[in-house]
Design a protein that fits this description.
Layout lengths: L3 H8 L1 H8 L2 H9 L3 H28 L5 H14 L2 H11 L4 H6 L4 H17 L4 H27 L8 H21 L5 H24 L1
Helix pairs in contact: 2-11, 3-9, 4-5, 4-6, 4-8, 8-11, 9-10, 9-11
């Protein structure tokens, strides 16, 4: 039997490829975005990031002792991710959207669907579903974050990491997190937990693709 990390990659490959081959994603990674589209993307991203730790907390609070290693991993991961929505606030401020306007923004339907599914999955499906959210978002950040932030920097004539600090930094950070996540995922031995992670990964890739497509 394949280690679960390898099995997860295989079982969710179609969903990952649907994201990376989407024309809107390909164009953004190659050419960046006009400033208005980038603002809209960051406004949606702010809500994705804001809800990341609360989803992890909901999952950790429901994690049985049979999966205590997942709970401990979530504790550490939440500590590392604390306050990262402030980085998105700073990036938005750098491209002309102030903090008050960002906090007042109502997320679009695909962002609501992403967050709503992740809360529901953590609380009702299986608490290990949260690992699918983490895996999908870290794949996107670690593989595509670097080229995307470079394209945005060039297309909008931004200096250094001003305006792209969140995406640029997570391209490196999440590559490191992925190595840690591989170890944790390989501790999952029961089919119910594994199936929940696969479903969550697929749904998160789908909804994040729709977010990107709609901005």
């Amino acid at each position: 039997m394949l280690p679960f990390f390898a099995d997860l990659v295989v079982r969710t490959d179609e969903a990952r490829r649907a994201f990376e081959t989407h024309p809107v994603v390909l164009d953004a990674v190659a050419n960046g975005m006009p400033v208005e589209r980038y603002r809209r993307f960051l406004l949606e991203l702010y809500h994705v990031v804001w809800h990341f730790n609360p989803v992890c907390a909901a999952a950790a609070s429901r994690m049985p002792d049979t999966h205590r290693q997942i709970r401990y991993h979530l504790y550490e991961h939440m500590h590392e991710e604390s306050g990262h929505e402030e980085w998105v606030l700073n990036d938005l401020d750098a491209v002309g959207v102030g903090p008050e306007a960002t906090r007042a923004h109502r997320p679009e339907v695909h962002t609501l669907a992403l967050s709503g599914y992740n809360y529901w999955a953590a609380e009702r499906r299986h608490p290990c579903s949260v690992l699918g959210m983490i895996y999908a978002l870290e794949v996107i950040a670690s593989v595509y974050g670097g080229p995307f932030s470079s394209a945005i920097r060039e297309s909008l004539f931004l200096q250094d990491d001003r305006g792209v600090s969140f995406v640029s930094s997570h391209a490196t950070m999440d590559a490191e997190h992925m190595a840690e996540l591989r170890v944790v995922l390989n501790t999952l031995l029961d089919d119910e937990a594994r199936d929940a992670v696969v479903e969550s990964t697929t749904v998160n890739f789908h909804h994040f693709t729709r977010i990107f497509e709609a901005v």
